[in-house]
Structures are given as C-alpha cells and as structure tokens.
C-alpha cells in the first residue's frame, strides 16, 4: 500500500502527500486498514459508543482508545510537526474524520483539547504554554473543558459576568459557568472572564487556563433529558491560576475566544455528517420494514432530509475550501443547517417508529424505574435518545438566534439588535 508507516509520528503527512502520487487514496486506505486492524478485541465493543445522549458510556475504555490512537500517531493530525502533530493537509484531515465515522469508531473524549484549545494555543499562546500543554493534549494525558456559557448570558459570550482579578502572581476567578461539557472528567478548563472592572460586552475579557482540581472550584453535573449528565455547572469561588496562564493579552480575550470558535466548526463537521447519513439510512430501513415509507408525508420528509444532507455537505466543503467571503458568517450558516436538520431528523425518527417511540422504561415490573432522575437505570432506545438529545442541537455551540444575528450583522450589514 505504501512504503512508509503513515501512523508514524515522525512522518510529515503534508510533505509526504506532496511527493506521493495518489496520496489521498493511499492515505484513505491506510486509515481504513488501521481502524479495521485496531477496532478489535477489547476495543470492538466500543463501536458506535459515546455519541450524543450516550456520552457516559464506556468513558474509561474510550479514553484508553484515544490514548491508543495517540500511541499510533493518529491524534492532532493537522497540527504542525514541531508541536507534536502530523502536518496533515486539509484533504487528509477530512479523509480521516470520514473514515473514522464510517468505521463507526467510538466518540472521542479529547475533542475540546485536540480540536479547540490546541489550535488556539498554537495560534495565540506563548511558547511556555505550548511547551506545557500541547504534548499532554497529543498523548491524551490531560483533558479539557470549555468555560464559556453562563446562566445569565447563555450563548451571548460577550455578556459574561465571571470575573478574574490579578493578584501578584496569580489570577483570582469568581463566578459561574454552565453547560460545561466534560468538566466532571477534565483536569483543566479554559475560561472567558471579565478582567477589567467596569468593562462591558467584548471589551475587558481575558482567556484563562484554569486547573479544575482545587478547593475553589465546584463541579455539579446537570441531568439531561436523556437521563445522562454530559455537561455541568461549574462554580468559581476564589479559584486561582498562575498569572502566566492567560492566552493573549489581558482584556483581549474576545479575539482569542472568537478564534477558538472558528476552529470548533472545522473539518470534523464532515465526519459528523457521515454519522448523520448513517442515522438517516437506518431510519429509512425502519420505514421500509414497518411500512412507514408508504405514507406520502413521511416519504416526503425522508426526501427532504436526504436533500438537506447534500446541502450541508456542499456548504461545509465550500467553507473549508475558503470559497466563503465571511468565515464567521459561513460557520453560522453551517451551524444553523446541521442543528436544525438533526433536530428534524429526531422528529422524523419518532414518526417512523410510531407508537413504540412513546414507550419508555418499564415502570410496573419489579425493580422498575420510578423516578426519571435515576439516570443509572433509565434505558432509552437509539431513536428516543436521538429525539431527546437533538432538542439541544439548536442551542449549544451558539443558539439559532445568536447565529442569525451574526449573519444579519456581520454578513448582511443589518442594524445591530437592540440590547438592554
């Protein structure tokens, strides 16, 4: 297939591709072969595990899988080699995410570090920060959480009220974050805090790196509709972090935060769409088997879902190829497309399954669940989880309303929405 080991961390994939005929095909074959050879044994049971609504499943085992990927050189592909990455091209990164999704490989536990914070530190961080944190993201020995949303601000990042005060050689952080994914299993959190007293909106914010294992931080899981707790509320009561663990300059965290959000909607989106396509294919199979496909309304909704998937893919490819004038606007359009599409798919799944979709846990049998808060025992099927979890798709990562404001103001040049 190829004369070199593509999983070898010493290989610069970009340089290799430039000198290798049919490099894309060879790379895809290498990724596919490695996944086939390694998703076996103890890892075989992880296929399809840990997705939306099932983030609690096999966490320790999925962490071991991520570290297995790292040991074979398959983490942080797009990072420059001097930071422990592979120098992969955009095409190679897309191929990896697509093949990973096609293999039904388990959901990764290191997404926030590998896809968000790592690229942000490479772009904005100090040399000391890169040396301290990047190797531990590459080998998955430290996990990260994202401290953005707040109870009073929601997706309006510029309205955060968590404060940070510089006291000699450390920052003192006070406030509360909410919807903080994976904070209960992470060692660190990157936090947007207001560091200039009296400042407002996007001015006076700082981007801090804060250790979670300290007396000044309380992490409290939030139970979701699915009965699981993937995200949390995090309380900062005189929490501390070193004075040099600020990314960028004090008061200029808004630019760093916006840079990170651009990384959030990167090449992994195309891999996500492979998973969406699998969900749609399975729903179509059910519709054919139970006769739901004979209903003209359901058949029409399936057709619209298929068209929507093609539109999403085309938009993602145009965005990643740099064919969109406004990257901020393009990211918002793509978020609107996939979030609404996925929410509608959950509703379609309920319609296709029919009355059986309304049947929940057995509440009459001996030992039955009598309280939905008993998350350890609530059992939902795949389509119930999909329906319930996708209620949140249009909220997290920037709500529909926020995305539409970005498009209106930054792309169309419309007047800013009135704010109190």
Automatic annotation (TrEMBL):
Q: Name one Pfam family in it.
A: Acyl-CoA_dh_M
What range(s) does the Acyl-CoA oxidase/dehydrogenase middle domain occupy? 145-238
| Biological source species | Gordonia soli NBRC 108243
Q: Is the Flavoprotein keyword given for this protein?
A: yes
Under InterPro entries, the record lists:
Acyl-CoA_Oxase/DH_mid-dom (IPR006091), Acyl-CoA_Oxase/DH_mid-dom_sf (IPR046373), AcylCo_DH-like_C (IPR036250), AcylCo_DH/oxidase_C (IPR009075), AcylCoA_DH/ox_N (IPR013786), AcylCoA_DH/ox_N_sf (IPR037069), AcylCoA_DH/oxidase_NM_dom_sf (IPR009100), Mycobact_Acyl-CoA_DH (IPR052161)
Annotated protein name in UniProt: Putative acyl-CoA dehydrogenase
Q: Which GO terms describe its molecular function?
A: flavin adenine dinucleotide binding; oxidoreductase activity, acting on the CH-CH group of donors
UniProt record similarity statement: Belongs to the acyl-CoA dehydrogenase family.
Instruction: Provide the cofactor list for this protein.
Output: FAD
Question: Which part of the chain is the Acyl-CoA dehydrogenase/oxidase N-terminal domain?
Answer: 24-139
| Keywords (A to Z) from UniProt | FAD, Flavoprotein, Oxidoreductase
Residue span, Acyl-CoA dehydrogenase/oxidase C-terminal domain: 251-412
Gene Ontology CC annotations of this record: plasma membrane
Per the UniProt record, the lineage of the source organism begins with: Bacteria, Bacillati, Actinomycetota, Actinomycetes, Mycobacteriales
């Amino acid at each position: 297939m190829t004369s070199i080991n593509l999983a070898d961390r010493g290989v610069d994939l970009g340089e290799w591709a430039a000198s290798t005929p049919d490099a894309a095909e060879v790379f895809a074959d290498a990724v596919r072969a490695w996944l086939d050879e390694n998703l076996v044994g103890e890892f075989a049971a992880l296929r399809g595990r840990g997705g939306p609504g099932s983030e609690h499943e096999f966490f320790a085992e999925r962490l071991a899988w991520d570290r297995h990927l790292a040991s074979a050189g398959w983490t942080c592909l797009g990072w420059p080699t001097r930071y422990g990455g592979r120098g992969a091209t955009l095409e190679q990164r897309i191929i990896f995410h697509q093949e990973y999704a096609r293999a039904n490989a388990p959901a990764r536990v290191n997404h926030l570090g590998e896809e968000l914070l790592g690229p942000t530190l490479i772009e904005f961080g100090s040399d000391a920060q890169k040396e301290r944190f990047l190797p531990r993201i590459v080998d998955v020995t430290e996990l990260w959480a994202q401290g953005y949303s707040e109870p009073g601000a929601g997706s309006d990042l510029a309205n955060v009220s968590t404060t940070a005060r510089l006291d000699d050689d450390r920052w003192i952080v006070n406030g509360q974050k909410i919807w903080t994914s994976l904070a209960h299993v992470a060692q660190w959190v990157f936090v947007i805090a207001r560091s200039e007293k009296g400042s407002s909106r996007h001015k006076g914010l700082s981007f801090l790196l804060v250790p979670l294992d300290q007396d000044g931080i309380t992490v409290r899981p939030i139970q979701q509709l699915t009965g699981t707790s993937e995200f949390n509320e995090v309380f900062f009561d005189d929490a501390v972090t070193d004075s040099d663990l600020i990314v960028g300059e004090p008061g200029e965290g808004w630019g760093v935060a916006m840079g990170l959000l651009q990384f959030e909607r990167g090449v992994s989106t195309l891999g996500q769409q492979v998973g969406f396509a699998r969900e749609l294919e399975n729903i179509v199979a059910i519709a054919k088997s139970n006769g739901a496909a004979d209903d003209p309304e359901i058949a029409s909704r399936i057709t619209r879902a298929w068209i929507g998937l093609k539109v999403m893919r085309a938009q993602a490819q145009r965005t990643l190829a740099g064919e969109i004038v406004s990257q901020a606007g393009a990211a918002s359009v793509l978020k609107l497309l996939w979030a609404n599409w996925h929410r509608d798919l959950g509703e379609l799944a309920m319609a296709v399954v029919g009355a059986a979709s309304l049947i929940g846990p057995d509440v009459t049998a001996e030992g039955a669940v009598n309280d939905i808060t008993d998350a350890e025992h609530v059992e939902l099927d795949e389509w119930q989880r999909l329906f319930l979890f996708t209620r949140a798709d249009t909220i997290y990562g920037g709500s529909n309303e926020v995305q539409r404001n970005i498009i209106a103001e930054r792309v169309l040049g419309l007047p800013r929405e009135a704010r109190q």
